[in-house]
Amino acid sequence: MTRQMTGAKMVVQALKDQGVDVVFGYPGGAVLPIYDEIFQQNDIRHILVRHEQGAVHAAEGYARATGKPGVVLVTSGPGATNAVTGITDALMDSIPIVVITGQVPTFMIGTDAFQEADTVGITRPCTKHNWLVKDTDDLPHKLHQAFHVATTGRPGPVLIDIPKDVQFATGDYVPPRKADTGHYRPRLKASRSEIEALAVMIEQAERPVFYTGGGVINSGPAASQLLRELVDATGFPITSTLMGLGAYPASGRNWIGMLGMHGLYEANMAMHDCDLMIAVGARFDDRITGRIDSFSPGSQKAHIDIDPSSLNKVIQVDLPVLGDVGHVLEDLLKIWKSRGRKVKKDALKKWWEQIGKWRKRNCLAYAPSDKVIKPQYALQRLEALTREHDRYITTEVGQHQMWAAQFMGFEAPNRFMTSGGLGTMGYGFPASIGVQIARPDALVINVAGEASWLMNMQELGTAAQYCLPVKQFILNNERLGMVRQWQQLLHGERYSHSWSESLPDFVKLAEAFGAKGIQCSDPADLDDAIAEMIGHDGPVVFDCLVEKHENCFPMIPSGAPHNEMLMGDAAATDAIGAKGAVLV
Amino acid sequence: MPVLQIKKGASRRSAYDLRNPNADGEERHTLAIVVDNEAGVLARVIGLFSGRGYNIESLTVAEVDHQGHTSRITIVTTGTPAVIEQIKAQLGRIIPVHDVHDLTVEGPTVERELGLFKVAGTGDKRVEALRLADIFRANVVDSTLESFTFEITGTPEKIDAFADLMRPLGLNEVARTGVAALARSRVEPR
Ligand SMILES: Cc1ncc(C[n+]2csc(CCOP(=O)(O)OP(=O)(O)O)c2C)c(N)n1
Ligand SMILES: [Mg+2]
Predict the structure, then answer these.
(1) Which of A90, A114, A269, A530 has the most CB atoms less than 10 A away?
(2) pLDDT of B23 over the 60 cut
(3) CA distances from residue B117 to A477, B131, B132, B139, B178 in whole angstroms, order as listed
(4) Going from the N-terminus, what domains does chain B have, and what CATH number goes with each?
(5) Would the CB atoms of A196 and B14 count as touching at under 8 Å?
(6) Is A337 among the catalytic positions?
(7) Looking at the complex, does the CB of residue A201 fall below 8 Å from at least one CB of chain B?
(8) Are B33 and B45 within 8 A, CB to CB?
């Protein structure tokens, strides 16, 4: 049952057959045939962004909200190179996206043709896989395989480069179920003996901690549900990376907060002093481990991950468990229950007492003010006033990002989108657009820094065009705050190029695009201003003028172990030695 | 359960330490990688090694199954055991890769390399080159009045040794293929 059609039509047909309902893109010469097909149908909605990087981040936001792959369509040459940052971001954070790029016709490849770039060469190291398709008959297979690869195993970005003559030529279309999707079939279930070993570890642990990451969320809602069941049944404390927030609810009984460089004191201390660490879909990133040779020195470590290369990459673990988080947790629960649901209750009680003592340090404390808005206060109010909404939070990168992670509570997975691995300033605004497209009725807020936000502010045009009521909550400290903080702590307070000069009037800027602008600088006005932002049915740029020199604490300085956290400004100055200064 | 016998704190190792190129305990491994022979697959493998800072001592590649379009890449690499494990895991992640075999740990192997040596000597040296070639079972594949071209197959060590002997005898040019290797007497399921 093959059907003859042009390559361009195949692209649209394959997207439909893959259940795609929206594409984020930007046209150009090398994708005109595909855009012509998009024009002639109504099943797939095309969102015209204002920059190709924005298209990719929007697709990431869409993917992270829905669990479905995000789709991007851009032209050859500059269209493709503009997309590279977004693609790398998706690779680092394991976000499933399919990027379709146009290419110069096959007979012109290699001639330095107009808008020719070696797209598959450029994106080879920043995609999970990519193809240049030179034959229209191969196209449907590669399109379907792209979705298979992007969404199977550890998810990631896949790119298909399609020369213009391949789009014009006619070939046989095949539907997904008849397509050759190759031999890629990652292992989902772990072996029984591995899982039994993990159950025994759980039974014998006296100071356990679950350390969870983005892999739980990528594994799907069922994995988060199973994690909650396991955590509650064992009574073990649980911490999470930035990427994993929401998998276990922030209001949950066993939640001890985010860990890592700007994580909570109690979470990092629990990691350092535990006797059993169960890493679930997390990858021992350097923001998490701190100094590696002092990382949780007295613990046995188990690591559940779907990617074999994550196991024993940074930290040698005692029990690597290769498999999908959802599958492994399901089997683990079953086996642990069938063995009698045993844990060391008395030891656990003592462990929780210890954690309670660490909690008393109240590590997120800051000096309040009634004159100037403290960024932490702004986020506490934002949290309080939006908690009851169907709410999604994206962020840019910097201090505001860490404060958002510390002060906003995430009760469900797929609600928090932030650039964790690549740390891409400019991620949050387009990501919020992708989320709003996926969840038209939800309250979508991008917690931003003024510098990051400017990096993709052109997307205000997209938000205005599609009437997307995304809220841009900018914590404006007129500084590249995180850079300034590092310069204060380890470069002798020499603030080299870390302030935001010549900032626009954000209210006027918003109005210039037909959006609403709000400015707030007095703590007394903040609640009303936030309420006004929430109440406005349309895009809002909220310029929240905050304390300019606030630092983000706690902080594990580079090169320090978990139990040497900096807790506040006084203790911080010059605390990072020369050795830590070379680390990023 | 063997896992529980691991002494507490045994995982207190640093990947940064392990990656130190001067660290002792570096091993030499021969990896055989079976891949779909699609465009760019070799660039992917090489890009992995350069991008992540792994070593390549030699690399050979050719399509070995013309019907199935699969190629076999043989890579000789060095690294600490942890790095070798990481290399294998990273190779396994490449989508067109079917199998990664670490021939060095999977049992005895046959490793062969082919070398071509042009030796330009006169008088006694020319005779001596011919005599040594005979001992090494190298074949003369081309000769002129000034030179011989020898073809030799064997382990890389044997070819190194041959090169050392030819050097004082007028060694002019060398071409080597890099190692091709198979596991000994283990029949792969087909
Ligand atoms: C594209 C990009 N360039 C540079 C950086 C380095 N960087 C990290 S945070 C930061 C400052 C961000 O400033 P702002 O967005 O105002 O956030 P703040 O830290 O002030 O909250 C910079 C420059 C980055 N992460 N991404
Ligand atoms: Mg700022």
Answers:
(1) A90
(2) no
(3) 69, 15, 13, 10, 14
(4) 27-106 (3.30.70.260), 109-182 (3.30.70.1150)
(5) no
(6) no
(7) yes
(8) yes
pLDDT at A407 over 60: yes
The residue of chain A nearest to residue B7, with distances taken between CA atoms, is: A300
Alpha carbon distance A14, A37 (integer Å): 12
- ipTM of the assembly? 0.91
Query: Which whole number is the average pLDDT over A359-382?
Result: 96
> Among A145-149, A427-431, B2-6, B25-29, whose mean pLDDT is lowest?
B2-6
Is the preceding omega at residue A554 within 30 degrees of 0, hence cis? yes
Q: Which atom of ligand 1 is nearest to the CA of A455?
A: 1
A447 CB within 6 A, ligand 1: no
> Is A9 assigned a catalytic role?
no
How many CB atoms are closer than 10 A to CB B110? 12
pLDDT average, residue stretch A22-51 = 98
* Strand pairing class (A300-305; A276-280): parallel
Q: Residues B88, B29: contact at Cβ < 8 Å?
A: no
pTM of the model: 0.94
pLDDT tens-digit series, residues B96-131 = 999 999 999 999 999 999 999 999 989 999 999 999
Q: What average pLDDT does the segment A200-218 reach?
A: 98
CB contacts of A308 in chain B (<8 Å) are: 89, 92-93
Q: Is the CB of B14 less than 8 angstroms away from the CB of A293?
A: yes
Q: What is the pLDDT of residue A567?
A: 87
Q: In what order do the strands lie in the sheet with B58-65?
A: B58-65, B70-79, B27-36, B97-102
- Name the residue in chain A with its Cα closest to that of B35: A183
Active-site annotation holder among A115, A204, A225, A354: A115
Amino acid sitting at position A291: R
The residue written with tokens 């074999």 in the block is: A308
The SS3 assignment for A127 reads coil
- Got the DSSP string for B41-63? HHHHHHHHHHHTT---SEEEEEE
Which among A565, A561, A426, A399 has a CA at the least distance from the CA of A483? A399
Amino acid at A33: P
Interchain proximity A125–B90, CB inside 8 Å:
no
Q: What is the DSSP string of B135-179?
A: HTTPEEEEE-SS-EEEEEEE-HHHHHHHHHHHGGGTEEEEEE---
Predicted confidence (pLDDT) per residue in B141-187, tens digit: 999 999 999 999 999 999 999 999 999 999 999 999 999 999 997 77
User: Which residue's C-alpha comes closest to atom 11 of ligand 1?
Assistant: A480
Beta strands in A54-117 (DSSP E): 70-74, 97-103
Report the largest interatomic distance among the alpha carbons of chain A, rounded to a whole angstrom: 74
State whether B12 and A312 contact (CB < 8 Å).
no
Q: Residue A425: CB within 6 Å of ligand 1? A: yes
- How far apart, in whole angstroms, are the C-alpha atoms of residue A529 and residue A534? 9
A164 included as an active-site residue: yes
- Give CA–CA dist A382/A574, Å, rounded: 33
Residue nearest to atom 5 of ligand 1 (CA): A425
How many Å apart are CA A555 and CA A262, to the nearest integer? 5
Residue B95 in contact with residue B39, Cβ under 8 Å?
no
Among the bound ligands, name the one nearest to the CA of residue A86. 1
